[in-house]
Amino acid sequence: MNAPATLPAGLRHDWTREEIEALFALPFADLVFEAARVHRENFNPNEVQVSTLLSIKTGACPEDCAYCPQSVRYDTGLEREALMAVDKVVAEARKARANGASRFCMGAAWRSPKDRQLDVVIEMVKAVKAEGLETCCTLGMLTAEQAARLAEAGLDYYNHNIDTSPEHYQDIITTRGFEDRLNTLQNVRDAGINVCCGGIVGLGEDQSDRAGMLQVLASMDPHPESVPINQLVAVEGTPLAEAPPVDPLDFVRTIAVARILMPKSHVRLSAGRTAMSDEMQALCFLAGANSIFYGDKLLTTPNPESSRDMQLFARLGVKAV
Hints:
alpha/beta, ten-stranded parallel β-sheet, two-stranded antiparallel ribbon, 39% helix, globular, disordered N terminus
């Protein structure tokens, strides 16, 4: 593949690993140009969807995800917090709406929720929707019955990332398998809830793993409505604390390839933005990212101040939606 003009057109679910690796191998300018073209065909390039993420239950997770400070297996200094009260979650949702967020995401550090815990989350979903916001949850693995209950409550999106390629997965997580991830995603899709699913760049993977991760996402039919691409936030005390930083242009390439493979999905520039320059973020928006998390924290890790985001949007002529 020597030039963007040779790229296959249309919405596809049959991308091969070879085709995706060829996209990664394009000259940077050609890749970003093609991603920007695809973006403009499907979205207003000067609009970015804004979500806010709140940790509604923090720490003490039994999983061993090597990147996560919420795992009970690692000493990261994180204080455990019980499941928040519904009225406190609603107060945070109102703040998010006042600050310009259109979607409110609630995350709980569970392997999978117990039904009594899900009862409380369902109250939260209903109350946040009543505030005029779209709702999203990330609660770990779900059964088909639990997904159906969330759908009945009106949940708009469910986030469950695959994190990395199937081949690299067991180097990062051993307490659940890659198929467990896919099973939850299928339960969510079968319940009629929009899927939010992406991965993390910087887990010690190589470019082939990034291609493999995106191939799994692009093979889903339909594609995930929201695709968060995270840059690892290396947290002291986790096994990946000393992971080398991601090359900024490699990260932009990942955004661009995601945009080409999933042209109608929202590609979210997600965790790790505090380490990104304004110029790097601008390149990501140019390459097809059109969603961000907005607010001072992503679950337990820092996020750019809201004022910085709005200043950057003003400089770029971008409208938050």
